[in-house]
Amino acid sequence: MRSPTVKRRRIAQELRRLREKTGMTRAQAAKALDMTPGNLGRLENREITARPVVVRAALALYGVTGEDAEVLIELARGATERGWWQNYSEIMPDWFSFYVGLEEEAVMLSTYEPEIMPGLFQTDDYARAIFRLTAGDENVDQKVAARLHRQDILRRDDPVEISAVLNEAVLLRQVGSAPQFRAQLEHLGELAELPNIEIQILPFAAGGHPAMTGPYVLLGFPDAVDEPVVYLDNFTRGQVLEEPEHFTEYQKAHMKLQVIALNPEESLKKIRKLTGSIG
């Protein structure tokens, strides 16, 4: 695992699962661990990070010993580390920091965007213009730097696999100057040629579709124990949906979008055509 966020998520899930497997209530377990039920609840809900000594005591209480225990204790040690995104804590709210920590570990992303270029695809100029339009000039350099740092997952040794469906409006709504927007579309075309990135354009001619309520990102992880999630955001904050039923419904919607959108080859032709039309 690369991400301490995913390590914390795994530890929290495992401690809760093991406690429930023993039949112990939260109050009973907390008393045995010499902590309050509230603190144990916050630990199981990832609101606080479980220190290795606490994880060791909890595992002993739940009857987990030997190699199984050591694996989880080692995870707990890693969970206390800092991710690169925590260097941007002044401009990155906690809810988005949690998402970026999940994104760092993901091996699969499926996304739909109706209006804006996905953050992972944005150029410096496009990102800068978006931040100024939506949040003003404060801390723009830091925000852009953080956004560009996120894009490392596209070209690392084991790059994330991405399926992106973009509404045609994303290609037509100019953000920044004409040269800057042309550079953004050129960059999108280059990304579309990478083997790990599939970009499909949803044309206006397709009519109504399952994702008309808004954008989303689906994240899948390398280990099946870490269940996939859905990320939604709006004007003021984002939300991670971790219940399996949410992921299933959004996954169905994404598959439908892939069918009605232009295929990757046709989409790349459209991207290049629109790029060439910008003076």
UniProtKB/TrEMBL annotation:
Coiled coil: none annotated. GO terms for molecular function: DNA binding. Pfam families: DUF5753, HTH_31. This is Helix-turn-helix domain-containing protein. SMART domains: HTH_XRE (SM00530). It comes from the Bacteria. InterPro entries: Cro/C1-type_HTH, DUF5753, Lambda_DNA-bd_dom_sf. Signal peptide: none annotated. It comes from Glycomyces buryatensis. CDD domains: HTH_XRE. Residues 15-69 form the HTH cro/C1-type domain.
